Amino acid sequence: EAKKKRNRLVVYTKAMDAALAHRRDIEKALLEALLTREGLSCHYQPMIRSADGKVVGLEALARWRHPTLGVVSPVQFIAVAEETGLIGQLGEWVLRTACARVAKLDDLFVAVNVSAVQLRDDGFADMVMRVLLETRLPPKRLELEITETAIVNADGAAVQLLRRLRRTGVRISLDDFGTGYSSLTLLKDLAVDKVKIDRSFVQNATQAGDSAAIVRAVSNLGAALGLCVVAEGVETEQQRAFLSEAGCDELQGFLFSPAVPEDRIERIIGPYPVPAPVPAYSAG
Ligand code: C2E
Ligand code: MG
Ligand code: MG
Ligand code: MG
Q1: Alpha carbons 143 and 112: distance in angstroms, whole number
Q2: Alpha-carbon distance 283 to 204, whole Å?
Q3: pLDDT of the residue at 9
Q4: Closest CA to 118 of 75, 88, 157
Q5: ipTM for the assembly
Q6: How many C-alpha atoms does 7 have within 13 Å on its Cβ side?
Q7: Cα 249 vs. chain centroid, distance in angstroms?
Q8: What pairs with residue 44 in β-bridges?
Q9: Model confidence over 88-132: pLDDT tens digits?
Q10: 178 CB under 6 A from ligand 1?
Q11: 175 lines ligand 1 (CB under 6 A)
């Protein structure tokens, strides 16, 4: 019995060792990738105005393919970057790359994800302004996506920093909305411009359950506060119809396009016309 237990412990430890070693490999490789810029890229996903199907902006999403580790998910490498202090470098690189790319397009805005760790850096707002000047992108065409959880945990300095950026015209968008615990007053105080309803609610909105009610409530709240409401993770026409009807201003998801490499942007900037409503019954 004792021996059995010991064996189990050994197996467990080995699994942990392997996980830890894999993580160290990722850390080392990510640092290399940031130094050489090899394997890192920025992909773009369109954001569609629900009223007419016009593409109004693009979200920049970091991608990383390593020669031996393969494709590493951003969820994984962003976490590693946050823990190792590389997120500042990575975030600045994504921002500069995305602003430079979108500055070449007419009118479209670019949405760039910002980690909570970046908001703790006093130099963040200056860095953003520097990048905008260098890439000649007007501030009003940049949107910074901050997760609801990051905002809830942000300290006074971080909130001040966001206010400062907002005064220059940069827009602030609350990402993954509904998964954190922000209050309605917080939303009003923070002076954000947009809320992005989390994919989990969007995908359940056309199923039985509470999601439809939540989506409607967030839409109404957003409208009342003068915010732009976005739905992420839209995959079906049924969801699109529901979300438009519920009052979401913008839509994003695989129904329109996944994120694509920069050389394919021209192919995904739509338009994505609103389908004609299907008649409920027509006797002819
Ligand atoms: P996010 O900012 O909420 O981005 C949306 C994620 O949902 C993206 O995953 C996107 O590819 C995916 N998505 C979009 N439409 C659909 C859909 O219709 N169905 C489904 N199933 N998924 C959809 P991705 O690219 O894997 O990124 C995951 C997360 O990693 C992002 O979530 C964001 O939090 C983070 N991330 C990505 N790039 C960056 C970055 O440059 N900086 C920071 N700080 N975080 C990043
Ligand atoms: Mg985002
Ligand atoms: Mg999101
Ligand atoms: Mg999300």
Answers
A1: 6
A2: 33
A3: 62
A4: 88
A5: 0.98
A6: 4
A7: 17
A8: 60, 260
A9: 999 999 999 999 999 999 999 999 999 999 999 999 999 999 999
A10: no
A11: yes
143 lines ligand 1 (CB under 6 A): no
Instruction: Give the contacts of 264 (CB within 8 A, at least 6 positions apart).
Output: none
Is 113 a pocket residue for ligand 1 (Cβ < 6 Å)?
yes
Task: Give the residue whose CA is nearest to atom 42 of ligand 1.
Answer: 113
Indicate if ligand 1 lies below 6 Å from the C-beta of 88.
Answer: no
What's the one-letter identity of residue 250? E
Summarised one tens digit per residue, pLDDT across range 176-190 is: 998 887 776 777 778
Query: What pLDDT, on a 0 to 100 scale, did the predictor assign at position 7?
Result: 62
**CA-to-CA separations, 250 to 4, 87, 229, 244, in angstroms, rounded:** 57, 29, 6, 8
Residues 69 and 121: beta-carbon distance below 8 Å: no
Q: What global pTM score does this model have?
A: 0.93
Distance 12 CA to ligand 3 centre (A): 35
Probe ligand 1: pick from 149, 232, 251, 254, max atoms within 8 Å of CB?
Answer: 232
SS3 99: helix
Amino acid making up residue 75: V
What residue type is 111 in one-letter code? A
Residue 230's pLDDT band, with cuts at 50, 70 and 90, is very high
**Dihedral pair phi/psi, residue 255, rounded to 5°:** -55, -40
Label residue 155 by pLDDT band (50, 70, 90).
confident
